[in-house]
Automatic annotation (TrEMBL), chain A:
Keywords: Cell membrane, Membrane, Transmembrane, Transmembrane helix, Transport
All copies of domain ABC transmembrane type-1, residue ranges: 74-277
Lineage summary: Bacteria, Bacillati, Bacillota, Bacilli, Bacillales
Name of the molecule in the record: Carbohydrate ABC transporter permease
Transmembrane helix among keywords: yes
GO biological process: transmembrane transport
Primary localization class, coarse: membrane
SUPFAM superfamilies in the cross-refs: MetI-like
Pfam families in the record: BPD_transp_1
Localization per record: Cell membrane
């Protein structure tokens, strides 16, 4: 009897706390959506609000007029995300597999070479000079793809652990007896057996590329090469950013005033919607991936 | 004899040549992305002059460091970095463990999954987007706080982006909002891994939920908590650049409360062109950061060899 009451109290208490926490996580997004559909003059008067006093699509109409830049940045983000994830998975598994082989001579020094990058790093200044002075990546798409993101020691070691614990050496042995070469074994046997870890690391790499604004901030000054996040970043500091494009502002000026306050929210909505829509589909793998990563590579 | 040994080694290398070949792109990338910048740390000892090239610039010994530590900046950025990270570590720990325990208690599987997805939502979005969410709430003229919440209490508008005193709270709140969901999933995985028999036995003995949490759940996930916390302490000298740069919108009047080592290095390099100071601060961070990572790992090892990085 007493236990029943205690159990019920826990359910009530748990739901209450978790509902409040969940609300805190969701409400800012609702504020964003609602505000993007609110008339600009109303926002100027009574601020961003959850309930649009006067519904308006002006912000989206303006966005539509300026869609060239936004569509291009979308294209760049998608290209970089797909290419980055693909290269990253290829390089991570190609490095993780050999150092997972217990029979490989010098595998310990190789693993240490990977591992040491997790302990010590040169930091921003020398990295910046390597990518701008030694390699001339400034204002190239490669600058969005390569620095910092392409491969990291943690993922390599995570993959190595997966190979070591789930690929039975006997399979490799018998393939070798059948006359298969190492490279063939790698992509015909090892990779197909490793889909779970490839999916997990691919998902996290994909999110990292989609969300990255840092490389664009330091290596890209040409707005034609901006990713979606960089466009958002620029508009935050300079709301006129899109309309300062001379060719566009000539057509747009006069025809429409910039609905500043609602436009700011509308542009984030189009930035955040793709990832929110995709989230339910990868949610399960995302949660699993976090647990795997924390348990250690 | 020598010959035969060399021959054997050649044969060995030949069998493994394809495997070594596979490692080349990755090793090359780490060389460029990680090892070259480590060597590049020497520019902290140079007076960088672009007309002479970086390698040709004059050596000036510890001058850059002398300048850096003479300014009050060095103190402010070190203090901010460490204090913020300490607050983050403590708060993250409390929120994440608390929420994980509650999530585990929820009987409705559907609701539990819903809560878990939702608390991870902030972790999924970029800091640029977070800065917009922050702006919607904090903006002087149109923010939700100034226009809706403060009037309810009859309070005046606050120029949030110009008042440093609020920012320690704002940044700590946002960091916890964004990051606690991640840790919560980690702890929940640990709690789910606990053998149910402990709880069954405890219930038979008449132990209350609270007693079970105190004497079963917490002690059994303690190793995971210790490991995650020590790893975070090892990284206490590094901060989330996006949080401190994007969310305060690079507002100059907030620097005293928002400047950390990472933002200082960035501004020195990209905005002020003060490469000497910037590289000195960067090297200071790299070295102290390295020592702290080694130390925290040493401590993790003492607790639990399994969980140590090395």
């Amino acid at each position: 009897m007493n236990h029943n009451r205690e159990a019920r109290a826990w359910q009530w208490g748990g739901h209450t706390v978790l509902l409040i926490y969940s609300a805190a996580c969701i409400l800012p997004f609702l504020l964003l959506f609602a505000s993007s559909f609110t008339d600009d003059k109303v926002i100027m008067q009574s601020g961003y609000s959850f309930f649009p006093e006067k519904f308006s699509l002006d912000a989206y109409r303006y966005l539509w007029n300026e869609s060239t830049d936004i569509l291009r940045s979308y294209g760049i983000t998608i290209l970089i995300t797909v290419a980055g994830t693909a290269f990253s998975l290829a390089m991570t598994s190609m490095l993780g597999y050999p150092i997972s082989r217990r029979d490989l001579p010098y595998r310990h020094p190789l693993a240490f070479y990977v591992f040491f990058t997790m302990l010590f790093n040169g930091g921003l200044v020398p990295t910046y000079f390597v990518y701008t002075q030694v390699f001339d990546l400034k204002n190239t798409l490669a600058a969005l793809l390569i620095p910092g993101l392409l491969l990291n020691g943690f993922n390599v070691l995570l993959m190595r652990t997966f190979f070591m614990t789930t690929i039975p050496p006997a399979i490799l042995e018998s393939a070798k007896i059948d006359g298969a070469g190492e490279i063939r074994i790698f992509y015909k046997i090892v990779l197909p057996l490793s889909l779970p870890i490839l999916a997990t690391i691919g998902l996290f790499q994909g999110i990292a590329y989609w969300n990255d604004w840092f490389n664009g901030l330091i290596y890209i000054t040409n707005p034609k090469l901006f990713s979606l996040q960089n466009i958002l970043n620029r508009i935050m500091l300079d709301i006129q950013f899109l309309s300062t494009d001379p060719a566009l502002s000539a057509q747009a000026s006069g025809s429409m005033d910039l609905p500043t306050a609602s436009f700011r929210m509308a542009i984030v909505v189009i930035g955040v919607v793709p990832i929110l829509l995709a989230y339910p589909f990868f949610q399960k793998y995302f949660v699993k991936g976090i647990a795997i990563g924390a348990v250690k590579g | 004899m020598e010959n035969r040994k060399a021959g054997k080694r050649m044969r060995l290398l030949k069998t493994y040549a394809p495997l070594y070949l596979l490692t080349i792109p990755g090793l090359l990338y780490l060389l460029i992305n990680n090892y070259l910048p480590m060597l590049g740390l020497v520019i902290a000892f140079k007076d960088v002059n672009f007309s002479k090239g970086i390698l040709g610039s004059d050596w000036i010994g510890f001058k850059n460091f002398e300048y850096l530590f003479k300014t009050s900046d060095a103190y402010v950025i070190t203090r901010n970095t460490i204090l913020y990270n300490s607050a983050f570590i403590v708060l993250n720990l409390i929120v994440a463990v608390g929420v994980a325990i509650l999530l585990n208690e929820i009987r409705s599987k559907l609701m539990a999954r819903f809560y878990q997805s939702v608390v991870l939502l902030p972790y999924l979005i970029s800091m640029v987007i977070v800065s917009y969410l922050g702006y919607a709430v904090l903006s002087m003229d149109t923010g939700f706080l100034n226009k809706t919440v403060l009037p309810l209490f009859g309070m005046d508008e606050i120029a949030w982006y110009n008042e440093p005193k609020y920012w320690p709270y704002i940044l700590t709140f946002i960091h916890t909002w964004k990051g606690a969901g991640f840790l919560c999933v980690v702890y929940l995985a640990a709690i789910i891994g606990i053998d149910q028999e402990y709880y069954e036995a405890a219930t038979l003995d008449g132990a209350s939920k609270r007693q079970q949490i105190r004497s079963i759940t917490l002690p059994l996930i303690a190793p995971v908590i210790t490991m995650m916390t020590l790893l975070a302490i090892g990284r206490i000298f590094y901060s989330d650049f996006g949080l401190f740069y994007q969310v305060p919108m690079d507002s100059g009047s907030l620097f005293n409360a928002t400047n950390v080592i990472d933002t200082y290095v960035y501004r020195g390099l990209m905005q002020l062109g003060d490469i000497g100071m910037s590289s000195a601060a960067g090297m200071y961070q790299s070295l102290v950061g390295f020592v702290l990572v080694l130390l925290s790992n040493y401590v993790v090892r003492k607790f639990n060899r399994e969980n140590a990085l090395f």
